[in-house]
Amino acid sequence: MPNASARPKHGRRARRRRREDPARNELVSSSLESAQQCLFNQDYGTAFVHYLLVLNLAPVFKDFAKESFRFTLFKWTEELDSVGRIQDLFDCYEQALELFPADEVILNSMGEHLFRMGFRDEAAGHFHKALKLRPDYPEARENFYRVANWLVERWHFLMLNDRGRNRKYQQAIQKAVQSGCNTVLDIGTGTGILGMCAKKAGAAEVYACELSKTMYELACEVVTANGMDGCIKILHMKSLEMEVPKDIPHRVSLVVTETVDAGLFGEGIIESLIHAWRHLLLPPQEQSATGRVIPAGATVFGMAVECLEIRRHHRLCVSEVGSLSLAAAGELRSPVSCSSEPDDSMEPYTTERLSRLPGGYKPLTEPFTALNIDFNNVQELEGLSSREVQKIHLPVTQEGELDALAVWFQLHLDEESSLSTGPQEDTCWEQAIYPVHSFLLKPLDELIVEVSCRDAYLRLCSVAVLRDGHEIRLDKRVDSQYTGNPISNQNPEAELCSALACLQTNQNQTKDFSMLECSEMALLNNHDYHQSFCSALAKLMSQLKVKWQNQERGSGVQSDSSDLLYVLDVSEGFSLLSLIAASHGHVKAYSSVEKKKQQEVLKRLARSNNIPEQHLEFWLNHVDDEHGILQRPSREKLWSAIILDCVETCGLIRQKLMEKASLARCLLEEGGRIFPEKIVVHGMLVESDTLLLESAVQGQEPTLGFNIAPFINQFTVPVHVFLDFSTLECRHLSECVELFVLDLMDATANYTNREVKVQATSAGRITAIPFWYHIYLDQEISVSTLSKNSHWKQAAVVLQQPLEVQAGDWVRLAVKLHKSTISMSIHGRTATEDLG
Ligand code: 44T
């Protein structure tokens, strides 16, 4: 019980009032008692209301009741979350934060809810605040790192580190301002850099707008730090919502912007500029006041390429995996695969840095000009979407499989100066990749590509090939008679099954398709991964069957041939592993595939591979809370195997993996297994400037004379994800070393800290430690996330303070596991002799 005689330490008036108000004191203490009673009875909603009342009436109890209040809040909001009362949930958090505005635990927890609901910007704000309040708070730190990548995208660092680009923009702006463009609007200001350039060049009025809250706040901080807070008016809004005179007093004479993505139009520059010309800019070419835009225009280039890496992420390339024939899978598409009736809501391209694609690429044509656009001509901008589809004939220069059209552009800042995002340039920019219908092109062929502009995207499609005077249509081609699957004709028997499956389900396969994420497609194409699972499962099955037989013999009980092994696959997304398990016979497999269409694919594959229908179930159809996932299907049956998906595509250990593993261990039958049983983290010391440039603004020098680095660098994250280690430009400074072991089967084998001593094999600056995993399905069978066919990328710890080493030096790596997050730090250099 709280000390009822505790004196409120507030002002005299409050004290007097409270003394004068015994009824109020009565209410407070009875409410406090009720709150505690409700908490005890697990009636969290009522407890929460009582606590609110108490703490609002008697803030003196805040210290005393803080822990219970938090606990109540978390329990109650968990309940609200589970029944979808989202508004109520956030109301509770807001009330809680009014009472405890500087409580990092509440801030962090509210951030987690916001993040789950998709409010990433707001979530990040909460994690950031929590972290500022308590910099060593691991939960907030981990959360902040996860969102920082979304918010302040990594290209900000690249752009600010790209001196060439900065200087070109600065010069173009300076020239325009000096030639009379006196009022400037920076659309999508980011850190505020272009707006500050305009001010520095002497513009009388500078306005800037920024859509993202995080970036807007950052721009305000940067502009203030550079002594320009009175001189640049920054608005937190999308340029399309701006009006004269509401937001800016009059039309401006110059718009500067770099709202372009790898496909040029993806950030909506066309729409923004049409709106700006109609509402925010002075008309062009008038004597005294002329409106204009930097950049003045762009030229878009394209090129056909062969690239295995792109192919395996966008098309099914194998006909069977782990003993299953895939012929009946139906058409599987990646979200950006080219189709004859493209879904307009989808982005038509993905982005890659061609020069960094593992396995490289082969150009099949010369680069061609796909489009020219003048940003200073509003009629041209408006006419873009109604422009006729342009057909381009491209002579094929090399034989190869057509996998994609790669696109890049030149951004003409003004008549003199331009930036290029081409694959050959020494820049950091990615290219846009349009995966297309596969076809083997030969020299002397002519590829016909259609270029159009729809829904503010540039769309490219390879439609036909001219060969020996004949036109072979690519867009109308049905890859295979039954399945739309390019590899199906390799196995006539399977094709027959597939046809049968189609008849049974009465599905029109050519019209119907299932969507897989690129990483899911690459996983499906990963033959070795599935083969490893297939063998490991087969081994376990036969061990368990032998064990059962022995038990039966021992007990004299007759063998029940209907006895089944139960296998649960809790992989995220699309997974064939349950089906592979079921294909071993006497197995009842549970899949966690959630999407209806993907479930249909699994059912079709079950039928065509002669797996009894009742041997495959969809677990999540019945269960949706996290802990429910791992509960067994019926009381008398324990799981023989539980398959956990332990590494995310981005190269990090999945969140809550270790918690899931300990739950899973409790649900296994004797002799049962978790797949994988163990994960070993491997890594290497490297020197890589590229990684530094992508993770923080480097160097002490101000950016174009402005102080920007310390502000944007608050969003530096120590772990770089989605890395292709095989093509990373870097020098290896050590051998590969084992960094950490996670044992999923034996909790007692785990530790949370490990010190690893690594010897440098050559001299250099250690700037990063790329890491990856060897995933052990059992003692003999393992898969590596670094392998050539892997659907996983790698991650790397980036050291903002590089460490100089000589060949032969030893360094100590402190590797830590907190929850499921691995972190690493380098602890100085040790002379060789110290280690003995
Ligand atoms: N492009 C680099 C930078 N925004 C991406 O919220 C350029 C990448 C690049 N704000 C190839 C070439 C290059 N009104 O913070 C963002 C965004 C904001 C707006 C207000 C609007 N209408 C918009 C539109 C976007 O602008 C900032 C920059 S946009 C992304 C720039 C050589 N690959």
From TrEMBL:
Gene Ontology BP, a term: methylation
Compartments, as annotated in UniProt: Cytoplasm
Name of the gene: prmt9
Domain Protein arginine N-methyltransferase: 730-822
Protein name, UniProt field: Protein arginine N-methyltransferase 9
Catalysis: reaction(s): L-arginyl-[protein] + 2 S-adenosyl-L-methionine = N(omega),N(omega)'-dimethyl-L-arginyl-[protein] + 2 S-adenosyl-L-homocysteine + 2 H(+)
Swiss-Prot/TrEMBL TPR repeat ranges: 104-137
Compositionally biased residues, Basic residues: 7-18
Alphabetic keyword roster: Cytoplasm, Methyltransferase, Repeat, S-adenosyl-L-methionine, TPR repeat, Transferase
Presence of the UniProt keyword Methyltransferase in the record: yes
EC number annotated for this UniProt entry: 2.1.1.320
Any single Gene Ontology cellular-component annotation: nucleus
PROSITE patterns in the record: SAM_MT_PRMT (PS51678), TPR (PS50005)
EC top class, as a word: transferase
Region (Disordered): 1-28
InterPro entries: Arg_MeTrfase, PRMT_dom, SAM-dependent_MTases_sf, TPR-like_helical_dom_sf, TPR_rpt
GO MF annotation list: histone methyltransferase activity; protein-arginine omega-N symmetric methyltransferase activity
Annotated SUPFAM superfamilies: S-adenosyl-L-methionine-dependent methyltransferases, TPR-like
